[in-house]
Amino acid sequence: MKECIKVITDGVKKNAKWLLLGMTALASLAISRFEEKEQQEYIDHAVAERMNALMAGDNPDEEEESEEDEEDSEEES
Question: What ranges do the domains of the chain cover?
């Protein structure tokens, strides 16, 4: 009887190790997918803001270029 219990206990311990390893892998995958989704949402939001600005006639690139041109002209004089 004691040997039977020992065999069962050993089996549970071995399976528990594999179960824990599998759960860790699944958790890692879930975190990775969540981060990818979060990054994609950030990109989608940035693209939407950019498109709205372009549709409204605002071009942030032109503003940045004009600021750089002003800085360059100040440095030259």
Answer: 2-76
